[in-house]
Write a structure and sequence with these properties.
about 180 residues; alpha+beta; 6 strands
Length: about 180
């Protein structure tokens, strides 16, 4: 089974008082499902348990600083059943081994984005298809990726690089 994963702001999906998938805040759609060129970027996973951390790593490695990451996912087949098409594209990430796991939903229109919003709302609210990676988990994911040479410390933005360097130095001194 293939899943598509996207960064969200969980509070936007919970801001409506009921669990009706049609009752979605405008901010969830215009913020979390913001399109470019009638397309929407996703990361593909074959196994949520094994790959979700990789998606969090990809997103966090582009941040200015250590921040939590909220991810939501749905089955790719459920999306294609809505008539939404996908195009494989290389992901823009410094984690080069993850570039091939990027896809774009393409040729989106109002119906498609509305259907996608309902699907995500249903999956987030009823199936708990979301996960928050706290700052500590993000720090560990990025630091481990540096140690495993999946990404280079110098490719991170200044504040994030300093946080990760400090963490790696603390880890080295505690190993002594």
């Amino acid at each position: 089974m293939t899943w598509i994963v996207r960064k969200i702001s969980r509070v936007k999906w919970d801001s409506m008082p009921d669990q009706d998938p049609d009752n979605i805040s405008a901010d969830a759609i215009t913020g979390d499902l913001r399109t470019r060129g009638n397309g929407l970027s996703f990361w593909e996973c074959e196994s949520i348990d094994q790959s979700l951390g990789d998606v969090a790593l990809v997103l966090a490695s582009a941040f200015e600083r250590l921040d939590p990451v909220d991810l939501a996912w749905v089955e790719k087949n459920c999306v294609t059943d809505l008539g939404i098409e996908f195009q494989e594209t290389l992901g823009a990430t410094i984690v080069s081994d993850m570039q091939k796991f990027h896809v774009d939903a393409v040729n989106l229109n109002l119906k498609g984005i509305s259907d996608l919003g309902r699907l995500f709302a249903s999956q987030i609210r009823q199936e708990d298809n979301y996960k928050r990676f706290c700052r500590t988990e993000i720090k560990r994911l990025v630091a481990d990726a540096v140690l495993e040479q999946r990404l280079r410390l110098e490719d991170l933005k200044d504040k994030l690089r300093k946080s990760i360097s400090l963490h790696l130095n603390e880890k080295d001194s505690s190993d002594i």
